[in-house]
Amino acid sequence: MRLDLVPRTRRSPVLDILSPALAFVAAVLIGGLAVAALGVSPGEAFVTYFVTPLSEVWSLQEIALKAAPLALIATGLAFCYRANLWNIGAEGQFVIGGLAGGWVGVATHGMGGFTLWILPAMLIAGTLAGAAYAMIPAVLKVRLGVSEILTSLMLVYVAQLLLDYMVRGPLRDPAGYNFPQSVGFDPAARLPYLMEGETLHAGVVIAFLAVVLATVVLARTLFGFEVRVVGASPRAARFAGFSDARLTLAVFAISGGAAGLAGIVEVAGKIGQLQPEISPGYGFTAIIVAFLGRLSPPGILIAAIVIALTTIGGEGAQIDLKLPLDLTRAFQGLLLGLVLGADVFAGYHVRLVPGGPSGRTAS
């Protein structure tokens, strides 16, 4: 006997909506069992993880600030993954974008006169640098057939080491008591705050606008149609005249540009200077966000908020309940696995088939 997955003749819209919700409930229940095994009340942990962060203004702002780069990066990655291409190096493109845009902020430090151009120049430099960095694995794949998974991943470490070198050397603040960091950016090089006296900055608006733009592009343009067709059926796409090479370069440029923009948004917003580490792993976490959101920009926005909520809640649980932060990462991975599994069962049903692996009954 064996189990076969048989495609459903008609995919239920209700099941499509319910499956991620059921996956989340299952993840919470499993997480509750893990918390109970550690000697903590599951109810208390649930309140700390999911209720307390939504009940205070500062934590709501922190959720938005963490969700913004995740949504921005994951939206760019959705273009690659929908085209069946695998950019695993968004973390490196994030770092390069932050470094390139931050260099503009350092170079213009203390500049007088007209300064309104500085912040747009930083955002453009970060976006272009991220796109250019993503072009390396894209060109290697198109020209030499090199796996984009390996090259994009290995380039992450190159970007991190380059940032570390620059802030310890050429971009280090000469008056910074030998600390490995750049000068603090001028106000003209910082993203404006949305509310006086609060931490919420314009990067949240940039991320939201990027999600809206991506939604329109994927659903209403010929390019979006090309991305969907190439991902679903490469042979049909070639027959229709779509170029695999051109699309590869385009989607890598989009995903790298989005990651680079997220990098400079983080540097010019929350951090305010260059330092050896500017990312807590946003580029890798965004991969989870992209698939939790089913590669749909609106879904990605919701998934980014959920992941940001669990991250803030996990930090609170670490302080208040002495739970390990690794438990939060395990929960996020579990949630991804359950959502992907629920997606499978939403599109297929299980059939029991007699016989061995080949489908033949035993004699």
Automatic annotation (TrEMBL):
Keyword Transmembrane helix: yes
Compartment annotation: Cell membrane
Regions that span the bilayer: 21-43, 63-81, 93-111, 117-136, 148-167, 200-223, 244-264, 284-309, 330-350
Primary residence: membrane
GO cellular component, one term: plasma membrane
One function term, GO molecular function aspect: transmembrane transporter activity
Keyword Cell inner membrane: no
InterPro entries named among the record's database cross-references: ABC_transp_permease (IPR001851)
Family annotation (CDD domains): TM_PBP1_transp_TpRbsC_like (cd06580)
Signal peptide per UniProt: none
Membrane topology category: Multi-pass membrane protein
Keyword entries, A-Z: Cell membrane, Membrane, Transmembrane, Transmembrane helix
Protein name per UniProt: D-allose transport system permease protein AlsC
Originating organism: Methylobacterium bullatum
Lineage, highest ranks first: Bacteria, Pseudomonadati, Pseudomonadota, Alphaproteobacteria, Hyphomicrobiales
